[in-house]
């Protein structure tokens, strides 16, 4: 922990305060939370915003939790004004207790959810019961590090022992891991994703959680491929993904969602990514589709319901990794970054070392422009013959590594 972070902790090791992050101190959120307190309700910022603030990580979303019922939440929001701007209440998930508060002109958007418990679950969906008890709400969450509640003053409540786990960078299920997973089997993948994000594998993975994930891996069949794909793409984007994917493989979780997949080539790929000279033309070439292709699952695109763009990229790097297309031609045909990704996957698949000189060839190709166009060959050639002649000359030009001039190409028989 940094010195600043230590000041937020009590001497007994529990989290005391979240500090004064911008997301909490801004007037928009303060006015919203004050309106709930003035109406006699509790309201807290909950989960990731608190956790990531303590870890000095960027906070993108601030979720709020309250004991106000959804109807009360709507009334409070719609009675609120900020600088003469009327807030709007959007019932984004009212049946589950979630209302979105929107202040259009000032741009404030917050999801506010009533304290709740899971009355009934089937591993995919939950029927919730609303509660006035903060502990009920905390106990239904997934991991201890996701169950911190910060009030408007920044004071933190930790009802599930998350402080010790956060200090140790440990991902641990709240209560019985088996029960938490059976409530929502996607929590298996979330378990591994948070391990990758926090780097906790370096200190060992929680064995109770890992054992529960292994035992219940077949429950992922109940989860939609879209939800699985969203978690996997977020997980594999982390720089420390390979050891965690390896743990998924050993536990049987990876096989359950991506038959035939392995972490070995991914580990080599990430090692090659780390060797990319960052003083060059870009940052290290971390690319989610390329990393997914490295797993070796034949139908990863379909199993993870990837977007058309990502599926196209997976197909490209797989195809080029299995070919011997020269570096300069890769750059010419696909552009600099895609060509780098193709080459990295090829090197990882064939156990080849990083070759910095190939980057220059890729750049040369990415900047090259074929000097012949159709008009240069007409009317001597037309139709299919014209296309064949253009392709023939382009092949000669590529084999010359772009050294053949326009005149030389036009003089060829």
From TrEMBL:
<dbReference type="GO" id="GO:0004810">
    <property type="term" value="F:CCA tRNA nucleotidyltransferase activity"/>
</dbReference>
<keyword id="KW-0808">Transferase</keyword>
<dbReference type="GO" id="GO:0000049">
    <property type="term" value="F:tRNA binding"/>
</dbReference>
<keyword id="KW-0819">tRNA processing</keyword>
<dbReference type="InterPro" id="IPR050264">
    <property type="entry name" value="Bact_CCA-adding_enz_type3_sf"/>
</dbReference>
<keyword id="KW-0694">RNA-binding</keyword>
<keyword id="KW-0460">Magnesium</keyword>
<dbReference type="Pfam" id="PF01743">
    <property type="entry name" value="PolyA_pol"/>
</dbReference>
<dbReference type="GO" id="GO:0046872">
    <property type="term" value="F:metal ion binding"/>
</dbReference>
<dbReference type="InterPro" id="IPR002646">
    <property type="entry name" value="PolA_pol_head_dom"/>
</dbReference>
<keyword id="KW-0479">Metal-binding</keyword>
<keyword id="KW-0547">Nucleotide-binding</keyword>
<keyword id="KW-0548">Nucleotidyltransferase</keyword>
<dbReference type="InterPro" id="IPR032828">
    <property type="entry name" value="PolyA_RNA-bd"/>
</dbReference>
<dbReference type="GO" id="GO:0008033">
    <property type="term" value="P:tRNA processing"/>
</dbReference>
<dbReference type="Pfam" id="PF12627">
    <property type="entry name" value="PolyA_pol_RNAbd"/>
</dbReference>
<protein>
    <submittedName>
        <fullName>CCA-adding enzyme</fullName>
        <ecNumber>2.7.7.72</ecNumber>
    </submittedName>
</protein>
<feature type="domain" description="Poly A polymerase head">
    <location>
        <begin position="43"/>
        <end position="172"/>
    </location>
</feature>
<dbReference type="GO" id="GO:0000166">
    <property type="term" value="F:nucleotide binding"/>
</dbReference>
<feature type="domain" description="tRNA nucleotidyltransferase/poly(A) polymerase RNA and SrmB- binding">
    <location>
        <begin position="205"/>
        <end position="262"/>
    </location>
</feature>
<dbReference type="InterPro" id="IPR043519">
    <property type="entry name" value="NT_sf"/>
</dbReference>
<comment type="similarity">
    <text>Belongs to the tRNA nucleotidyltransferase/poly(A) polymerase family.</text>
</comment>
């Amino acid at each position: 922990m940094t010195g600043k972070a230590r000041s937020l902790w009590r001497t007994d090791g529990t989290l005391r305060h979240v500090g004064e992050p911008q997301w909490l101190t801004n007037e928009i959120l303060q006015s919203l939370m004050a309106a709930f307190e003035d109406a006699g309700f509790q309201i807290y910022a909950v989960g990731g915003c608190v956790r990531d603030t303590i870890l000095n990580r960027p906070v993108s979303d601030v979720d709020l939790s309250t004991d106000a019922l959804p109807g009360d939440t709507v009334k409070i929001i719609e009675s609120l004004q900020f600088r003469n701007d009327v807030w709007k209440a959007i019932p984004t998930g009212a049946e589950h207790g979630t209302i979105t508060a929107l202040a259009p002109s000032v741009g404030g958007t917050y999801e506010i959810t009533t304290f709740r418990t899971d009355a009934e679950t089937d591993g995919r969906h939950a029927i919730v019961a609303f509660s006035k008890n903060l502990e009920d709400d905390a106990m239904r969450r997934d991991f201890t590090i996701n169950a911190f509640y910060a009030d408007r003053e920044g004071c933190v409540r930790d009802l599930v022992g998350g402080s010790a786990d956060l200090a140790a960078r440990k991902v641990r299920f709240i209560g019985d891991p088996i029960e938490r997973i059976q409530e929502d089997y996607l929590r298996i993948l979330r378990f591994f994703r948070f391990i990758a994000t926090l780097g906790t594998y370096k200190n060992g993975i929680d064995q109770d959680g890992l054992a529960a994930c292994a035992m219940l891996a077949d429950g992922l069949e109940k989860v939609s491929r879209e939800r699985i794909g969203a978690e996997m793409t977020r997980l594999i984007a982390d720089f420390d993904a390979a050891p965690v994917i390896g743990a998924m493989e050993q536990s049987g979780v990876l096989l359950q969602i991506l038959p035939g997949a392995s972490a070995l080539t991914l580990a080599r790929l990430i090692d090659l990514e780390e060797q990319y000279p960052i003083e060059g033309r870009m940052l290290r070439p971390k690319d989610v589709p390329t990393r997914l292709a490295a797993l070796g699952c034949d139908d990863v695109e379909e199993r993870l319901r990837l977007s058309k763009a990502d599926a196209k990229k997976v197909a490209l790097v797989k195809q080029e990794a299995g070919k011997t297309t020269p570096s300069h031609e890769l750059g010419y045909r696909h552009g600099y970054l895609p060509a780098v990704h193709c080459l990295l996957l090829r090197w990882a698949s064939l156990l080849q070392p990083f070759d910095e000189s190939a980057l220059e060839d890729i750049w040369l190709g990415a900047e090259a422009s074929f000097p012949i166009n159709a008009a240069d060959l007409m009317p001597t050639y037309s139709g299919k013959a014209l296309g064949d002649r253009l392709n023939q000359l382009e092949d000669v030009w590529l084999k010359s590594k772009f050294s053949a001039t326009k005149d030389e190409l036009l003089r060829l028989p």
